[in-house]
Specification:
The complex is a heterodimer of chains A (407) and B (97). Chain A contains 10 helices and 18 strands. Chain A has 407 residues and is an alpha/beta fold. In chain A, a hairpin with a 2-residue loop joins β10 and β11. Classes of the chains: A alpha/beta (407), B mainly beta (97).
């Protein structure tokens, strides 16, 4: 159909790897998207530039490079819609703000409905979204067919398409470029990005966290902020804090480069696949999590099989595509499928985790509000509902039905 | 694909089983005496171990019986499968990957 897009040039200079200093005002543990964005906004919005981002592997080598890059804000509950919409608005200005391309493409996201239950849930979510100022509409089967001609929306399939929700402002971005853009911006403002630096333990003084012990020595920290996704509970355990998360492998895959055939993101919770086509032409598809706890960054083959069966039922022409590679990231899932952000039960220590299967889209938004939370030592109003204490007083934000099956 | 040994049926593919999370979580002895924090701990908090882990599995499409296993959460190796009520096997020494 269309010519593959030519990728824009990256900036000449991105960032420089730093040797860790002995002390920082803020130490961020985890050099993924959330950690880098947090560092960038600490420097840019709050003038806190004596900041280190410690990454045990390489920059953005974890979930930031393993997600399916979908960005949307059509969540059911007010608390979720508020933070994801804040994030989407930041995405809309991100290339100007960072001064470099991230290939943000607002091509719209469809969430398909395949049965009466899906339709009711979807319409309810559209109504909730509209009340929260999030763009959302309900599309009939005919409208879905028109928007995505290659989708098999006929009646004679196991899971016929009964319609879909559509968020036109949703879309995708190139995830590694997002990480590099934030790293570049943070570095330019004075932030140290330290790769190959694993936090082995914390240094505490009474109830106060005062630094970290790493494989490259001790680093003192005025404030310490966890941004470690699937390994958050392993780190928190070193502080004697339990987090109500379970870490699972989440898989995705890409095809070889193909002509552009799909210019919308299509997600289906019921048949369980989500697919988009990247700028270069790969089909990018995401699967579900493995049911069991796993830290191995590889998933089980039946999950991929299930996902491909769903994709081919929805898009018969994909049957001729080849799987180029599959991989998994380790996602930390909360009991209510919503994140945990805010203070740890220690002084000068913060946590940002539990984003489960959907953290990428939140990158700018959480970076912004987590930085604000750290800078002012009190929760930003958008993260207040996501405090760790919600599991004790019971005010959960249950996004399982509307969002958490597929992000 | 994991191979899992049901203590009653023997080795089968992972597809026959569903996962039950951390093993040996016992119901509070005195539920009425629990405060909110203790209830929260019982309901929402489970170990999320990196390494050897005692966990429950359910042979969903086989004998439909629960059992326990010790699995390494990085390598997915199983060290033991045992029935409820059996003596709890020792954790293996940490493996070198």
């Amino acid at each position: 159909m269309n010519e593959p897009e030519r990728l824009p040039d990256l900036p000449d200079f991105l960032w420089a790897d730093a040797e860790p200093k002995s002390s920082y005002d803020v130490v961020i543990i985890g050099g993924g998207g959330h950690g880098l964005a947090t560092a960038y906004y600490l420097a840019k919005n709050h003038g806190i530039t004596n900041v280190a981002v410690l990454e045990r592997g390489w920059l953005a080598g974890g979930n930031m490079a393993r997600n399916t890059t979908i960005i949307r804000s059509n969540y059911l509950w007010d608390e979720s819609a508020a933070i994801y919409e804040h994030s989407l608005k930041l995405w809309e200005g991100l290339e100007d703000d960072l001064g470099c391309e991230v290939l943000f493409s607002q091509r719209g996201v469809l969430n398909l409905a395949h049965n009466l239950g899906d339709v009711r849930e979807a319409k309810r979510r559209v109504n909730a979204n509209q009340l929260n100022g999030v763009d959302a509409e309900w599309l009939t089967t005919e409208e879905v067919r028109k928007l995505v001609p290659i989708l098999n929306a006929s009646d004679d399939v196991r899971y016929p398409v009964w319609g879909a929700t559509f968020q036109p402002r949703a879309g995708i971005a190139k995830h590694d470029w997002v990480a590099w853009g934030y790293a570049r911006g943070a570095h330019a403002l004075g932030v140290d990005i330290v790769q190959g630096c694993e936090v082995l333990d914390f240094v505490t003084d009474g109830n106060r966290v005062v630094g970290v012990e790493t494989n490259r020595g001790r680093i003192n920290a005025g404030r310490t902020a966890l941004c470690a996704a699937g390994h958050s509970s392993v780190l928190a355990a070193k502080l004697g804090v339990r987090l109500p998360v379970q870490s699972h492998p989440l898989q995705a895959l890409v095809s070889e480069l193909l002509d552009q055939v799909l210019d919308t993101v299509v997600m289906s919770n019921t048949v369980h696949v989500y697919v988009s086509q990247a700028h270069k032409g790969e089909l990018v598809m995401g699967a579900g999590i493995d049911s069991y706890i796993g830290y191995g960054q590889r998933g089980s083959f039946p999950v991929i099989e299930h996902q491909m069966a769903a994709a081919i039922e929805l898009f018969p022409i994909f049957a001729r595509a080849h799987v180029l590679r599959t991989w998994a990231g380790i996602v930390d899932v909360c009991p209510d499928a919503s994140p945990i952000v805010g203070h740890l039960p220690l002084d000068n220590a913060f946590v940002n985790c539990g984003w489960g299967t959907g953290g990428f889209k939140a990158t700018p938004g959480i970076g912004w509000v987590y930085a604000d939370t750290i800078a002012h030592d009190r929760p930003h109003e958008l993260v207040e509902p996501f405090a760790l204490t919600r599991f004790e007083h019971g005010s959960l934000i249950d996004e399982h039905g509307a969002a958490a099956v597929a992000h | 694909m994991l191979s899992i040994c049901c203590p009653w049926c023997g080795w089968r593919d992972e597809l026959e089983f569903s996962y039950g999370g951390q093993a040996h979580v016992t119901y509070p002895a005195n539920p009425a005496g629990l405060d909110d924090a203790a209830w929260s701990e019982y309901i929402f908090f489970r170990d999320n171990t990196l390494g050897w882990f005692r966990e429950r599995w359910f042979h969903a499409t086989g004998c439909r019986t629960w059992f326990n296993a010790i699995r390494h959460t990085v390598t997915n190796e199983f060290a033991a499968f045992y029935r409820p009520g059996d003596p709890v096997p020792e954790m293996p020494a940490e493996v070198v990957r």
